[in-house]
Design a protein that fits this description.
A six-stranded mixed β-sheet has the order 3-2-4-1-5-6, sandwiched between helices. The mean pLDDT is about 95. Helix content is about 30%, strand content about 15%. The chain contains six helices and six strands; from the N terminus they run βααβαβααβαββ. With about 200 residues, it is an alpha/beta fold. The N and C termini lie far apart (about 35 Å).
Amino acid sequence: MVGRLFLLRHGQTEWSANGRHTGRTDIPLTERGRELAAAAAPTFAALRRGSPPPVRVLSSPRRRAQDTAKLAGLAVDAVDERLHEWDYGDFEGLTTPQIRETVPDWTVWTHPCPHGEDAAEVGVRADGVLADVRPLLADGDVVLVGHGHFSRVLIARWMGLPADGGVHVAMDPAAWAVLGDERGVPRLDAVNLVVPS
């Protein structure tokens, strides 16, 4: 494998700042989110150390992801519907403490989201994305611009962990993760890289 897979989470939104689960709702970036997205550009350049341009840049259909890509200096080649955030179903817009008022000990990793997705379903979607991306890495780097929980599942599945293994990975707003390879074995090269506040 020649290239590496770069994941970029969208910048801060009002809901992400407040801990509200944001899947289907298309929330715009806050001003701070726009600043963080722009700051992702030099971080990406430093990570790539003068490598040729990415062979493919794919984005979630949500505006917050597409705006982040643009502000980070990325030219999106295509929007991939599969890169959307976890579908939180009835828990859309709620915080974890609010959900725990009716479902004690709830986490997205361990409990289903009524009328939404569970970890296994998100893992299947992530596997499909990775299956399509891996052959592209023979020609260079690929960038996926998306969301926090889904990026964490992509990282877990890249490393051969179950989808709920994403609980062990952080992805802050406008953070980068880098997925690589060591002699055919998937490797986590970097995670949750952001410009310090």
